[in-house]
Every structure is written in C-alpha cells, then in structure tokens.
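Batch manifest, entry 17 of 40.
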Amino acid sequence: MKIELIGGCTKEELETRIQNVAAAGKLSRFPGNVSEVLESCNDYESNLKLIKRIIKMGHKSIIEHDYLLFALNDVTPIVEQTIIGYRLTSFTIKSRREVDFRTVGFYTPEFRNKDGEIHEKNDELKEEYNKHMKYLFNTYGEIVDSGVKVEDARFILPYSYHSNIIMGLDGRELEKMIVALRNGHLSNIPDLKELGDALFELTKDHIPYLRASLKAQEDNLKTGFEYLESLEERPEIKIADKATMISYTPDADDVVLESSIMYHYQCSKEQAKEILANMVKKDKDAKEKMMYEIMHKDEKRELEQASFTFQIPISLSILTHLTRHRMHSLLIPEFTPMWNMNNYVIPESVKANANDIYIEATKKNIEMVEKFKATGVNEGDLVYFYLGNQLLNVVTTMNARNTQWVCRLRCCNKAQWQIRFIAKDIAKQVAEVAPLIGKGLGPTCMTDRYCGEGRECCGLIDALLAADEKNK
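Output type: structure tokens
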C-alpha cells in the first residue's frame, strides 16, 4: 500500500490552501467582501492558529473548503468498498470489467490471534495464505483462458487483490475517515488501519490543522450492535431471491404531483389536491403529462418527496455498482463477523465454460477459511478470503429521483448483468405502486430516445427510433 497526496504539497500551494480555509473562518465576522478578507489572511502561522481555534470550537464547515486528492496505490477492495461509503467523497477506480487482474498482486496481513496479538504461527499461516491466494489467481487466469470475459471471471478473485484508486475529498470528510479507520471498529481490519495511519501521517506536513483535532478523538467508537446482540442471537443468513420492495410512499404519484403544485402555486395540500382534480377533469391525461414534465426537467426536487425501500441480494463484485450511487440510504453488513461463505453466485458464462474449476476453487476457499478459524486467527484478518462471488443482503431507501438515476444507468444493456437484473426488478416494482413514476424508469433509450454510449451503443436506440418513425 502506498498513499500519496496529489497536488497542493509545495510550500506555496499549502499556504494558499490554508489561506482559503482561514478566510472562510474569518468571513462571517470581518467587515468587507470576500476578496478583502482573503487579502487580510496573509500570514501562514496566524491563519493556521485561527483555523485550529475555530475547529476546536466545533465549527468544522470551514475545512470543507480544503479539497484534497489522493492516490491510493495497491489497496484491497476491502478499502475500496469501505471508503466509497463516504458519500461526500469522489473516486475513480481501475475497472475489473475491462482489465485482466491475474498479475495485480495481493495483500498479506500479519495474522493475529483473537486478542489482537501476532499469532504464534504467523509465518506458517502467511506461507499457506500466500500459496492459496496464488492458487485463486491462477484459477482466475484459467477461467479467462477458457473464454470467460474478465467481468465474469472476477467473481473468483479474492478480496485481497490490489486495487488502485484516485480519491478526492474535503478536510472535514478526511477527518471522519481517519478517525473511523484508526480508532473505530474498522481498525480491526489490518489494511483499513494501515490506510488510516497513512492518511494521519500525511496530515503532519500537508493538512496541519487536522493534527490536534485527530489526536483529541477518543478510541470509543463501537459497532452500535452491542445491545442488539446482547438480547438476540444471530440467525442463519439467508440470501433473498431478488430485489424486494419492503416499504414505499403511499400514493407516490399523487404525492409528487401535489408537491409540484404546492411549491409552484404556494398553496396548501388541500388546494393542491383540488387543483390536480380540476386538471384531470379538463384533461384525462393531465397526471401523466405533468409527471413526464417533472421527470424530464433539470431540477426534479418533486421526485425526492416519494421514496421506496428495498432489500437487495448482491455479490461483492457488484456491490460498488450500487454503493457509488451516493444519494440513497444504503445499509451494508459489516465485514465481520464473517458471513456464510456458502452463499455465492456462479455467472452463466462460467457455468458454460469453467464451472468445475470455479466451484472447486470456491469450496477450497471455504475450507481454508474454516482451517484458519480453527487456529484462532482474528476475524479481522479473515476478510481477505472473501471472494467476489460472495452474496449478501443490503437494504436501501431511494427517493424517486435517485431511483430514476439508478435505472437510467443500470437498466442499460451495457450495464453489468447482475446490477442490470436488480435495476429492472426495482423499476418493475416501483411501476406497480407508482405507475406514472414507473413509466419514467429505464435506460435513456427507452425513456428519452437518447443513448450516450456512442460507438459502444448496443443498437437498441436505432430500433426504437425506427419503430417511432414507422408509427408516425
């Protein structure tokens, strides 16, 4: 693992960054405009003292004006999945759908016992672990060589492989991340702790206003499940058959339409209902036409007034396709305690070309996990045995606007097959309870007669446009 701050590192750049943050802190109580405040913040040490004093008071919004860009070299997808959960952070990640990963390398932890101390058989365990990881990577190579595309072969990759990420975030989000990775329950996972420590070290020279604030944080962050687990034992993990809607806004179509009338005419809900009813009397298609306009305008705040909650079965390989849609409320199970490793998916292309070696590798991996468990290895060190094919249940609540966005991207024929099936299930179930919203859910070729894929277009848009022309 190698963590670098990209840009903003020279003395001049650092002083400018600190000047901008100090000016943000000084602006509310200083006479004059922004330019005059910036000009007055002309001493680095004074600026740094001001920033530290303000954030010590709890006013941390000022450090959101310090935007930082990091290169995360050779980190694991455990890191990837964890940090993508920080919804105010931006990421670009090397694609496993396009790149052959057989030679990217993998992470090897120092194995610990249940007390967190180095395991007495650490060297033996590392040797066996490394041999097993090489076997899994060789299996991945065999599957690719059998004719399976890398996007499906990746389901056999262990979650120890090296991922590479460009990450951008502001100072406030960085502080939250460092605290969670170094001091919270996530710190029990080795490379998450290493990332937290590496980011903390970079603050010394490059984000100096955070140093004192971070040191003041207590090591008292818990999982939040202690009370639950004190009263109820963990049941057997059962993976859902498909994405299932578990709750939704009643009369979601009318809620959206009435909210549009309410804010446009500045009227009460009762008046909005009456106006909508009068519109329908004048034009029986009024609701549909109005919803179409809402779903195709630039600002779609009305759609945010209705929401839908789903339980979704998904594999680790595809989880980031869902997580990166930041504006929904996604609940993902913790990496520990370990999930049921027998819950896994086999891509159809693998079944047709490399089923036996895929299943054999998956079974050997489960056996290896059980063997390491039996030696008393800390569960935080076992997470690197997860394979991309591991299935888990997640719960999320999306408002209608976010649902439309997810479906526009993930119902597309170019989307990965598992997330495409999930998105289509979501669109279908929303349409059952909110048919007008449902009409606007799907790939852009279906809803807008537009495709942004260029030369990589699947061709459906041409067929749709031809059919439209024929039906004129």
